[in-house]
Amino acid sequence: MFKYPQSILNLIDSFALLPGVGKKTAERYAFYVLNEMKQEEVEEFVKNLESVKNDVRHCSVCGNLAEDDLCPICQDTSRDHSIVMVVEQERDVLSMEKLDEYKGLYHVLNGAITFSKGISPQDLNIDSLIERVKKGDIKEVILATNATLEGETTARYIKELLVNFPDVRVSRIAYGLPVGQDLIYADQMTLLKALEGRREYK
Amino acid sequence: MFKYPQSILNLIDSFALLPGVGKKTAERYAFYVLNEMKQEEVEEFVKNLESVKNDVRHCSVCGNLAEDDLCPICQDTSRDHSIVMVVEQERDVLSMEKLDEYKGLYHVLNGAITFSKGISPQDLNIDSLIERVKKGDIKEVILATNATLEGETTARYIKELLVNFPDVRVSRIAYGLPVGQDLIYADQMTLLKALEGRREYK
Q: B72 to chain A: which residues are within 8 Å by CB?
């Protein structure tokens, strides 16, 4: 039976790795590359894929995306270095920054505790958070993990570790979001309310 | 304000070129590449993109996908070379071949006449179809463009050109599909009915 040339089948497989992309969608993307994309656009695409994988670094302090050793936020001396907001993903940092309201620093966990997927605390940037707190300059840790079971489990876990530091205020971002909603999909007003309504985490 | 590193912004732009991919989805794909894809998978992806753009050829007779000068279907001497089915896209060939019912050849137009997008008959592989018919070996042309305004316009246009060849039977695939439906999304039974019910195109 007639089949597509192998290189198209291969490209369909690559696109199908992306989240939420099934066979039909992957096929549509592959044919778009073949028939509609200009040569320069494909070359750009290739360059950008390689560059993201090779050039993007993570801030050695907070784990946020960086082009240098420190991310622009950790480098910014005008920000309040005594407050650290703990988020699950790098994308959450941008969502929060768009508010232009929060002036402290961040700590990116790179996920949340998810027993069903075997993601345990050791797989997350939790140790490095505790190291930061140990240095003694941090007055408040805001737990801004998602309002999901995993996010809540992670917040609870970190809270337990931080009882050893009684001088550090530990707060949890307010439940302004519907439970089950990921932070990155929240609208700005909801995010703002959630930030304002943060409360002591006991 | 904090922004993503430039290489991520660039990759988001590349993904956003794909059909039906908005900013949020492109961002999701880019972060998946950054955080979840293995180095080898990204290298594969890059290789496949380049290969599709550089190695895939079109059959010099019918315009279908090919790895040689002729596609496997045009090379197949067991098929009926006196019948040509005219389709809009390469993907339509695969949909039809999956039926394992049609044993003639194809002609891929590479689109349909779409005035709103400035796609005129000159932009499609229509001249090469007429050249094929002129050679005198073709007894039937089956017009299997989509059941859309554009597909119907294209079928009508080709029909008019073929009145100059009174010995060639011109048929139109039957309307088994709901009007407005693209051929590639049709289920096999609908496709089969449409093929069986083809009628003289007057």
A: 2
CATH number for region B6-55: 1.10.8.420
Q: Is there a common fold for B6-55 and B61-200?
A: no
How does pLDDT run across B41-86, given as a tens digit for each residue?
Answer: 999 999 999 999 888 889 999 999 988 899 999 999 999 999 999 9
Indicate yes or no: pTM above 0.80.
no
Q: What kind of architecture, by CATH, is found in domain A58-200?
A: 3-Layer(aba) Sandwich (3.40)
Structure tokens at A71: 């991310």
Query: Is B75 part of the contact surface with chain A (CB cutoff 8 Å)?
Result: no
Alpha-carbon distances of A148 from A5, A113, A192, B31, B186, rounded to whole Å: 44, 11, 18, 20, 39
Q: Where are the domains of chain A?
A: 6-55, 58-200
CA distance B21 to B44: 22
Low-confidence winner among A14-23, A42-51, A189-198 (lowest mean pLDDT): A189-198
Cross-strand partners of A86? A107, A143
Q: What is the CATH number of domain B61-200?
A: 3.40.1360.10
**Which stretch of DSSP H or E encloses residue A87?**
strand A83-87
Residue A107's beta-bridge partner residues?
Answer: A86
> Which chain A residues touch B1 with a CB distance below 8 Å?
97-98, 100
Q: What is the ipTM of this complex?
A: 0.75
Q: Which residues of A touch B66 (CB under 8 A)?
A: 5
The nearest alpha carbon in chain B to A27 belongs to B91
Asked if A147 and A181 count as a contact pair (C-beta separation under 8 A), the reply is: yes
Name the DSSP letter for residue A85. Answer: E
Closest CA to B173 of B115, B88, B111, B113: B88
Burial (Cβ within 10 Å: 0-12, 13-18, ≥19) of residue A59:
buried
Which three-class secondary structure state does DSSP give residue A133? helix
Query: What sign does the dihedral A14-A18-A24-A29 (CA atoms) show?
Result: negative
B100's torsion region: left (phi>0), alpha (psi -120 to 50) or beta?
left
Q: Which of A6, A52, A93 sits opposite B34 (nearest CB)?
A: A52
